[in-house]
């Protein structure tokens, strides 16, 4: 097989000779076939085109960026609004937002306050984002994930 080559069954030396005449490579396509299938082509060009296709596919895939916002169980109103503005900016850029409440020392007894803050955060952003993961306690952190609405 190949360009400028008649399709048929050739001896190995004849096929190699034909490839050498055309200044191309003899590449084995299907070694398990009987007889094995080979193709006369420019192998380096073939590899280059494959690499180019892989790059194109990789470039087309969407990259998911996760931005993190950290709050405390006693976060003040002004700080809450400040973090909310950052979250809005991140969501408009198309990034996911991971909001967490970090409990230091004995503040872990205020789990309910942490959950209320996270739910209020989600409620403020309900027109821009959808909740991917509801508030969940993991160690000393309560985490919630938000994804931008399309």
Structural account:
39% of the residues lie in helices and 28% in strands. The chain has 150 residues and is α+β, with helices and mostly antiparallel strands. It folds into 2 domains: 12-59, Translation initiation factor 3 (IF-3), N-terminal domain (Ubiquitin-like (UB roll)); 66-148, Translation initiation factor 3 (IF-3), C-terminal domain (Translation Initiation Factor IF3, 2-Layer Sandwich). The strands form 2 sheets. The protein has a 4-stranded mixed beta sheet with strand order 3-4-6-5, with helices on one face. A two-stranded antiparallel sheet has the order 1-2.
Question: In short, what is this structure?
Answer:
The protein is α+β, with helices and mostly antiparallel strands and about 150 residues long. The protein is built from 4 helices and 6 strands; from the N terminus they run H-E-E-H-E-H-E-H-E-E.
């Amino acid at each position: 097989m190949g360009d400028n080559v008649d399709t048929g069954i050739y001896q190995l030396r004849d096929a190699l000779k034909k490839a050498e005449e055309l200044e191309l490579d003899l590449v084995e396509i299907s070694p398990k076939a009987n007889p094995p299938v080979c193709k006369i082509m420019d192998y380096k060009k073939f590899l280059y085109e494959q690499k180019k296709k892989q790059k194109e596919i990789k470039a087309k895939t969407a990259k998911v960026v996760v931005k993190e916002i950290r709050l405390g169980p006693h976060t003040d109103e002004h700080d809450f609004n400040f973090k909310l503005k950052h979250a809005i900016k991140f969501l408009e850029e198309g990034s996911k937002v991971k909001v967490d409440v970090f409990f230091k020392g004995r503040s872990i007894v205020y789990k309910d306050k942490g959950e209320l803050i996270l739910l209020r955060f989600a409620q403020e952003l309900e027109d821009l984002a959808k909740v991917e993961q509801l508030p969940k306690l993991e160690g000393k952190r309560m985490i919630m994930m938000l994804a931008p609405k399309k």
